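Supplementary Note 2. Why include the ligand at all?

Several targets in our set were suspected to adopt different conformations when bound, so apo predictions alone were not considered sufficient. For every target with a known small-molecule partner we therefore ran a joint prediction. The input for flavin-adenine dinucleotide is given below.
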Amino acid sequence: MLRLTEIKLPLSHTEGELKAAILKRLNIAEDAFISHIVFKRGVDARKPRAILLTYTLDVEVCDEAAILARCKSDLHLTVSPDTNYHFVTQAPQNLASRPVVIGLGPAGLFAGLLLAQMGFRPLILERGKAVRERTKDTFGLWRQGVLNPESNVQFGEGGAGTFSDGKLYSQIKDPRYLGRKVLDEFVKAGAPPEILYESHPHIGTFKLVGMVEKMRATIQSLGGEIRFESRVDDIEIEDCAVSGVVLASGERIATTHLVLAVGHSARDTFEMIHKRGIYIEAKPFSIGFRIEHPQALIDRARYGVNAGNPQLGAADYKLVHHASNGRSVYSFCMCPGGTVVAATSEPGRVVTNGMSQYSRNERNANAGIVVGITPEVDYPSDPLAGVEFQRRWESRAFELGGGTYQAP
Ligand SMILES: Cc1cc2nc3c(=O)[nH]c(=O)nc-3n(C[C@H](O)[C@H](O)[C@H](O)COP(=O)(O)OP(=O)(O)OC[C@H]3O[C@@H](n4cnc5c(N)ncnc54)[C@H](O)[C@@H]3O)c2cc1C
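The joint prediction is reproduced in token form.
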């Protein structure tokens, strides 16, 4: 296969025009062309009157070597890379003890899935409830203002990612195509196949719920086990090595291999880990608020006369400002056609986030507007000082909002 990048065509192009562009770029006749797959498709909206679709394609042709030799000065033509996932190992036949994964958010789900696929039959311990029950508790917070500290937007099957926009891209480089494995597994679990090639793929909350359940079933079918309402309250360490975990119920589970996939919000668990003498360090993070505006305004600003074109969907944006004091303020987790939701897991606090459905057809767009802060400057001393910093602002937001969990 050959990888062709930077093929640009107008929004309204046909399949035939895409094929013609391939033949022209490779300078080959139609009978030398076998097939093509769209690897990525992005939107170039820098000129709103002439929006282009930008393709990265994998093309199968006769006599690949001759084409490569002839086009060796073309920087946008290479051999297609291997994007398959390769397992790092397989479990031994006589597996002595099962690995334990704490948390069933995106990290725990994939750790559990990969361990199961490699034959390790992991045990996954999740403090919250299974996703359907958890959904009821989450709507209890949004509609009745009742918070269940163990079953909410942050805690429960699927983790913080379940009630979300389901944006599946980041700015992290991925030279080993590990993200491809994630997307492939999502498609197997029922995600729309276009997430494999859209440059800004997203899934949306309702689809995520069913997908998380299917992935759980896959883990179980491979010998994995998942236990809900099983909060890990202690980690046992003997001779500087993990020997087991203790649940809130008092039950002890022996294990020598532990994956901590507890996410950003398990503050009690961070404290336990710190008390246990396990090394942790404070990280820089960003703090801010959510801004909301009519989606139609963003569509017009980005796409001009093409606003509303179903091929483009709801427009997104990105803002950055480098302030003279050295700090940078930027938009984060922009949610086209979504809603702002309350996302706390602690009583008496307000945190906001953005979520949407697959259609992204809500009236408003929203985005976090945040500023980067660091342990050195903003929350020095203790590794957990950043958590206290967060709590302070979240409590103030709760008071300012009238002492309810309404957001905004
Ligand atoms: C409303 C919302 C919208 C978001 N939108 C996006 C988006 O569009 N795109 C994106 O990339 N990111 C988004 N995020 C962020 C994303 O959800 C998180 O980055 C991601 O969920 C982190 O995954 P994780 O598995 O590390 O942790 P989490 O998802 O936080 O999962 C950790 C899990 O561990 C469990 N747990 C914690 N402590 C224990 C314990 N002691 N014992 C047992 N279980 C425990 C928790 O219950 C939880 O289920 C959004 C977040 C929210 C809240």
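The chain is about 25% helix and 25% strand. The domain at 2-79 is CATH 3.30.70.2700 (Alpha-Beta Plaits). Comparable summaries for the other entries are listed in the accompanying table.
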